[in-house]
Amino acid sequence: xxxxxxxxxxxxxxxxxxxxxxxxxxxxxxxxxxxxxxxxxxxxxxxxxxxxxxxxxxxxxxxxxxxxxxxxxxxxxxxxxxxxxxxxxxxxxxxxxxxxxxxxxxxxxxxxxxxxxxxxxxxxxxxxxxxxxxxxxxxxxxxxxxxxxxxxxxxxxxxxxxxxxxxxxxxxxxx
Length: 175
Fold this sequence. Notes:
8 helices
């Protein structure tokens, strides 16, 4: 049981399992071949077999996503992006930084009471990303899904990868 649309909501480019591949799983262990036909296409093609994930866990993670970003008919992504951009703009002004530094921005959020709302949102996104890691994605699949999710809310001057450093900074520090 799977739902490709749920995975798409999380930024995971998934495919349905069809034909012999699906039937093989009925008679024994199921081995997925999610590799592209050509090695150089590896960075471009992430063909996550949707049935690799436990549907109950996927629904839980999508509900967590909806709790942060809203459902598809009540999407809050632009509101979140606007709040993060305003916060990052204040950080840039205060620090006179020439480029975005995730660790410094995170420290600013944690030490500035006026940024509490943004910090709460960042912590929610951090928890969501931790849950997404438990979907069984490879590190490459996870990085692509994370980039798709973060590119929608990354502040001006920060790539999704730079912004990921601010979101996942506390986890690296062990706090």
